[in-house]
Amino acid sequence: PSVPRHTNRLINEKSPYLLQHAHNPVDWYPWGQEAFDKAKIENKLIFLSVGYSTCHWCHVMEEESFKSKEIGEIMNEHFVCIKVDREERPDVDKVYMTFVQATSGGGGWPMSVWLTPDLKPFAGGTYFPPEDGVHRVGFRTVLLRIAEQWKENKDALLESSQRILEALRHTSEIRVQGQESPPPPKEVMDTCFQQLSRSYDEDYGGFSKSPKFPTPVNLNFLFTYWALHQTTPEGARALQMALHTLKMMAHGGIHDHIGQGFHRYSTDQHWHVPHFEKMLYDQGQLAAVYSRAFQISGDEFFADVVRDILLYVSRDLSDPAGGFYSAEDADSYPTTTSGEKREGAFCVWAAEELRALLPDPVEGATEGTTLGDVFMHHYGVEEAGNVDPMKDPHQELKGKNVLIARCSPELTAAWFRLEPGRVRALLQECQQRLSSARAQRPRPHLDTKMLAAWNGLMISGFAQAGAALAEQGYVSRAAQAAAFLRTHLFDPDSGRLLRSCYRGKDNSVEQSAVPIQGFLEDYVFVIQALFDLYEASLEQGWLEWALHLQHMQDKLFWDPKGFAYFSTEAGDPSLLLRLKDDQDGAEPTPNSVTVTNLLRAACYSGHMDWVEKAGKILAAFSERLQKIPITLPEMARATAVFHHTLKQVIICGDPQGEDTKEMLHCIRSVFSPNKVLMVADGDSAGFLYRQLPFLSSLERKDGKATAYVCSNFTCSLPVTSVQELRGMLSP
């Protein structure tokens, strides 16, 4: 590689996204006091650019504008330029995204915002082309106009930025409004179900025409709705909507049929042509939701998808020390000699390439049939490519095929006069061969940043899959990742979580010079993961750590006046707003998940203040939950869990005994959204017995493993039969 002509301060950062911009001619600063002081001393505006390393349009804006010497000179002359990785600093991202959405009606990345020297926003947008076009003003023009405004109308700009900030403070406030009780759960659940039902795509599943996102939060809501309405037509429809969506996604091009795992989202209605980046948070949530689909349906198809996701994460997103990396990029070089990257290049196929790789004749099939014929028929491959040009504005996928399962193995078998079992074996052979061929291509960029929150979601995915599929290896992988978090993303001296760590040279794990403290989402998703891991492994140490983190979360983020948790802790003068997220999106909002966390924590500790806190969160979001619960499906789900009270399913028995294992298998194979599991193993000095003294009064019946189903610490009669226990688990 040639020696870079420019190097800026980002060269000293750890974030892969910031390092991507370290050789721009722009004099970038990371978010921090050095940049703020420079802006104040020189009385300059700040240009803030926020993105992430696998963001396609972030790459485009860098290529077009930030690598331009001429545009770099304009930026350096008139502005202090700050680069932020939104995955490292979701707090900074949320403050300014709130502004961009409020003033432009839309948002996205890269986010481009202009701030006064005291960090107040007054202008912003997302991607700007470098030069003026017919419909859009160019980035160069915007820079020069804003610099001119600051010179000519400084006081007006300052006044305007102050007004904007006050308005944002007012509109973004979420607090309890007079009434201090949670909203009625039946009304919230029914409204959310009806809103999802109206937006549901009957043909292809999902909840919009296009683009289509996986949105596991919607599917989890539907599973809980079904569990509470199993005998009604609405319950049946909820289950059908969820399972059909999951099947269509798994058949679609959003699912990587050769390299496993799921891409970010589909650009079309059919789940066919995706944006090709793969995010850890999607894999973690989808592993959990497909595990639930298997629990409910017993259909091995869903278990296979779980195994597929976890194979991808274990192979491609795992650090040797046990943590999980954040993402793989959409763009890569088509060949080792290519000069420029293309979206999807690593994943797509030309028909002639497939024919060359799969030329073998298939015995017993229609005469002349090759492996390539079977594979191409099954996965919708066309000679001229199968991507609609409307979904490929830059012609990057011209003549290429995105694999999508167009037939069942039975239909493909009938077409070629083969047995379905034989077709499955042939397709598997093709996949292995194509996987080897694909391994020769240049890989997309890997973002090796490790985030506490996303690792939490992935630990939950492995732990829940391990429990539902009875796969001990998945539980062990979850435990390995939790141990990684405790070593690298937890400060035992302060008792606090850290946000991020990074893969260093020689596969070491590195931390930034000034570590970023954990945000609310880090605590919430890690606590959820530790509860899931306890239920899968029965190791009480995970429970103890989860309860410690819950106390710390209360201390750092709870809003005693307006209720619910702030996303960030108090005391950072560079953050103009302390916000509470109010939308379950690609990830659930932390306040939604924490309702169930608090209820679980109370069951494991007897600390009933946590139940009260859960109710206060629901009260703070009450208006939104009653009017548009579709924006908060995970919190809507939690209103039902809150109302129905969690069942404590307690097994008295030796965890290694066959009778105990049989009961555990029964509990784990049933989808029951309002239960917590614990094993009372007779160790009266153990953590659970210290937390819950009533456990010592529960005994084995006739020397056998015995189950008790308790509600608010009042227990049922003892049960030793698995059939009886199964009957008691229904919501």
Task: Explain the overall architecture.
This protein starts with 15 loop residues before the first helix and ends with a helix. Among the domains are: 10-172, Glutaredoxin (3-Layer(aba) Sandwich); 347-440, no CATH class; 648-729. The longest helix is centred in the first third of the chain and has 19 residues, at 233-251. It contains 27 helices and 21 strands. A hairpin with a 7-residue loop joins β6 (265-266) and β7. By secondary structure, it is an alpha+beta fold. The chain is globular and about 85 Å long. The mean pLDDT is 95. It comes from Falcunculus frontatus. This is SPT20 protein. Residues 7-168 form the Spermatogenesis-associated protein 20-like TRX domain. InterPro entries: 6-hairpin_glycosidase_sf, 6hp_glycosidase-like_sf, Ssp411, Ssp411-like_TRX, Thioredoxin-like_sf.
